[in-house]
Amino acid sequence: MSKSLAELCSLLIEDNYGEFYAHIFATLLSHGRLLALQLALKCHLPLRQIQHGLAVLVQAGLVFHHTTSEGRTSYEANPRNAYDLVRPGRTLELVQKRFGRAASAIVTQLLLLGHAPVGQLKTVNRTANESTTVQDHDIENDRANSTSIVGSPAEDRPDVEIDNALRELCTHGLICRVREAHFRTEADTRQLVEEKVHNSFRSTAKGTKLKEEFAEKVEEAIEKEVDICINFRKSGPENMIPQKRKLDDADNIPNPKRPKLSNGVATNEGFDPTYFVGDDTNFLNDSLVVRLNYARIAVLFRNSRLVSLVTAIYGKSFSRTYEAILHQLEPDLPDPKENISLGPEQERSPGTTSEVDEALLAQDLAHHETYKEHSGSPWRRVNGYVNGIKHQLTPEARSHLEVLCQEPYRFLSRSLEYPDRYVVEYSPLSIHLRNAEIFRIIFARFDKYAVRIIRVLLDKGKLDEKHLQETVLMSAKELRQILAMLQQAGYLELQEVPREAQRQPSRTIYLWFYDPDRVRKMLIENTYKCMARCFQRMKVERDKIRSTIEKSERSDVKGKEEKLLARAELEVLKGWRRKEEWLLGEVGRLDELIFVLRDF
Amino acid sequence: MAPKKSTAPPTPGPSASTAKDLRVLTVNLYNWCRVNYDEEHILSQQDLLAGDVIPNKDPNLLLAATQSLINDRLFRTHDLRSGGIGWKIVSHVSAQKYKDLSSDESLVYSVIESLGRAGAWVKTIKGKLNLHQKNVDQSIKTLLQRGYIKSMSTVKFPQRKMYILAGLQPGEDATGGAWFTDGVLDHELLEELARTLERRISDLSWNQITHPAAESTGLKLGVSQKRKSPDDGFDSTIKDKGKVRRMDTDNAGDELPSSSNAHADVQHRPTSKNQHVSGTLLEKIYVPYPAGYSKYPTLKYLTDFVNDNKIIQSGKITENNISQLLEVMVYDDKITKIKATPDGSAPTMYKARKNPTQIVADWDLAERLRDTTRANDGAMKVARERELRKLGTGGMTEIPCGRCPVFDMCEVGGPVNPGNCEYFEEWFLKIESTQIDQEESLVW
Asked: Subcellular localization, per the record (chain B) (predicted)?
């Protein structure tokens, strides 16, 4: 966990929840795991207040907590979730664009509450307009939009709409279930599970085999503990009744700290299989607690990026085809591994691929025009048949697909096993997007020659100056200048390979190389820092005109600013709003960079 | 010049004839070699004996003859690849030169000669001959005065003193090839040629479709047959317009499903820059060729294109040079390589990243940018326009922090901190002005 990220997380919490919570969070971040009492000491605050603050932070999913068997509860910051606080605006934008207003109303509600039972989300229309606590700019804007619809007079219509939207969000994994394990750190969960497994573990194996078996069991159990999917496709009627009973037990939740399905072992409770059987719209159990799955937002965003890349390269009609393909793949796509990304050292998820069937695609494309407005029903995914007619790809569509399969981008490729299926290999595409982003930054900071050098080195590996010069067609002097600049800025590195043991400089080969991963990490760090600076600058600007802002926020002035404030004061306020807008806009753009560099 | 191991002492053996006979023999041998071999060939002992010039193939006689030729500078010794010693023939003219030279001078001359078009560096000469610097300098001076050698410079080591035979031109390695003029990389030439090539490749790698306004023969090409019921896919509004393939794609017509042409697609973005594009271009629409299209330009085509149109004044250019430039263009993301066959047996083809409309728009923008910066009228607007175009979306490069020189030092409570940052003030002013500009005319 880097310094800039810690700084940024605290600033985000301050922006969203206030200074008090930010203080607690920052203390937890800098000290690591603490008991409440210790935290109170470090924060120089009374225990009562700390406990209150912790409760809020836990509720928001910003702090992990864990109670040992002796009953001592310790707390630890959750920077991953804290970072996600920067994303509600984009989330709403993407969700609304993709799934429509009803879905965005649900997401708004989830953003406000952190996590909520499904039952509460179903009533979202009628209650959404009341809650107005989140300070985020974008949310408020968007919420205003969404409430105007959800508050529409047609009383019974929204219900269906909301149900559809909920269903759609679940299929796409945007909404995921919350389990108790999600409030613990990974290590704690592991420990607990290991204890549990240890107690019940019986095996005849010995030695390493025993260990392996044990580890396997533990992994399995952990997976169950943290499983987030509300996967109703897998569910069968056989486990329906016991599940229901379990859920009924958990129905009324007295303990705010343990609101989750504490018996959450089976994967499929919460889904009412009758949904598939027939008419019941009540397909999700009302008591199932869900939250927003930010990892899926990255999927949505990646898709939109890919689509715009296709538009730039091949044109609009191609990108429409591609969009249809990507949309069809979305629900099946495995989560980009929760790579807790704060440890950038961690392995990134292996290439996620997914296949799309031609017949299905044909069908999708056929309904293309309507596809956008009406977010579709799960039926369209069942098979390639509608009313017994198998859809065929039109020749146009097929030729589009073939163009998309072309080198060097390979937006699509044909499946090796089934000739009529296509595969999207996300991992090289993500790398492409990432590189493009890095090149863009280098181009903006330096010039086209710098990008050329970087691309040559990326392609060819390590090169000495002579070879590099021949490849990039630049004079030695210019080349050296740019190389030095790039090295100073941390984009390039130099390796010395001595030809003799004496390591004489004259007898040494110097090789330039470009390490994309290192540069990526550096850029991520810098981006965090930039974002933090934006927030800090906002604070500075706010402090400059503190008195005016305070005046405008007085209860007797609020709402009547136009009338009660002097012209100069209004000007100042307007200027400040504009600046805030710019800075927040910039934060959003920086977040895009994080998406590309870290989350794709 | 180590003597061959197996040879006898340099004096002629018992069977040697008189000096006069040897003289004749030598001349005969030399003439025979001149007739049968060229100057580049290295003659081995067997070669020389094969000619029946030497009576009885007597090695001692041969040794005497070659030694005499070497003394006359008409033969030059060489190592054979298989080991042992070989000889090269030297013309009388070259041999004559040696005769006038002192021993040091002739040594220096021979080194310079042996290095050929690569040129000889003074230090190399000195190292090879183990002579004193002064002697080498003196010899070089004499040789220069006599016009036997000339000085040259090499691209790789511009500061080195190099010499080459007066009659030779420095080799490609030394001059740097076609891209160098007087030993300096010719940027202008590169840029200009890259532009021309990009335009040419672009013309050949996008399928141009003309609007129905200009052409109404689309129906003849069977577009109408491909029309299906309205729900068969894409926006029928675009499709219903008849499209016609451009002339140069007719050959490829058999390979492409003709319906792919129906997907007209405006590649240029509908932004203000189109206003500056000439009217004819606005009517052209470019779509990608279908997969498997095999008429993208190849290296050979492009080299011929450059040479046939005499784009480069200084004369012909080789495929090697063009390939170098194309490689750079690939790295500049102007073109992409396309392999015609997966195994790479067919030559690589090149496809432009942008279509002609976009390229022209780019040039146009650059042109205007150059103009307006001079006039300082709306410069900011154009700069912003370019910035937006180049940047696409994305942060980091826009805010001051992205290019802050003291970014690493910036810290809350430090000497440089977000509070006292001067760049932000500047930035606020800058956006304000661009926003005003934008509101005036640009709609993004």
From this structure: Nucleus
